[in-house]
UniProtKB/TrEMBL annotation:
DNA-binding region as annotated in the record: 29-48
This protein's record includes keyword DNA-binding: yes
A molecular function (GO) term: DNA-binding transcription factor activity
Gene3D superfamilies found in the cross-reference section: Tetracycline Repressor, domain 2
Protein name: TetR family transcriptional regulator
Any Pfam family hit: TetR_N
UniProtKB keywords: DNA-binding
Domain annotation HTH tetR-type: ranges: 6-66
Coiled coil location: none
Length: 186
């Protein structure tokens, strides 16, 4: 008889991230994940020593995907600073990454360790944004203000539910052009 097929570690992590995005951190439970994966709880303990180890691996994966992979892709695709800013924003807040990012932001409000992780991720994002914007403007105060406004626009866009004449996508695109110095008229 062949040995049982083991559920890969990454499958547990991905299932945990999906559950986090859908239902929050308290929903990430070993028995729920095992049920979703169609395996026993024992399979979990062959991959992880504890739920805490899984949570750390989930946050490591989120950080790697939302920072390292995004930046690598933006740099590989090239372009000028404006196009890189746009691409980084689009990738960072993509349909794949956004739900987990929003869940981590919510979680960070009540968990200091998650807040520290989010701070590290956001600082790396802001550092990259500052670097790109510094290619467009010499004034460090202006770079900092534009970086803060651009990042706030991307995060806040998913938290604000107000209606906008002409449509939300148009307003966000116009705001982005204003921030990057490319919109002369509305």
């Amino acid at each position: 008889m062949p040995p049982p097929i083991r559920t890969p570690r990454q499958s547990w992590i991905d299932a945990g991230l999906a559950l986090l995005a859908a239902d929050g951190p308290d929903a990430v439970r070993v028995e729920v994940l095992a049920q979703r994966l169609g395996v026993t709880r024992g399979g979990f303990y062959r991959q992880f020593a504890s739920r805490t180890e899984l949570i750390t691996a989930m946050l490591d994966t989120w950080e790697q995907r939302s920072i390292d992979e995004v930046l690598a892709r933006v740099e590989a695709e090239g372009g000028d600073a404006r196009s890189k800013v746009r691409r980084a924003g689009t990738l960072t807040f993509s349909a794949e990454l956004l739900p987990v990012d929003l869940a981590v932001r919510s979680w960070a409000r009540r968990d200091p360790e998650v807040a520290d992780r989010l701070r590290r991720v956001d600082n790396r994002r802001m550092d990259y944004l500052r670097e790109l914007l510094s290619a467009l403007w010499d004034d460090t105060a202006e770079v900092e203000a534009r970086a803060m406004l651009a990042f706030s626009l991307l995060v806040g866009n998913h938290l604000i539910v107000a209606d906008h004449p002409g449509g939300r996508d148009r307003v966000v695109a116009d705001a982005g052009r204003l921030l990057l110095g490319g919109l002369t008229q509305l």
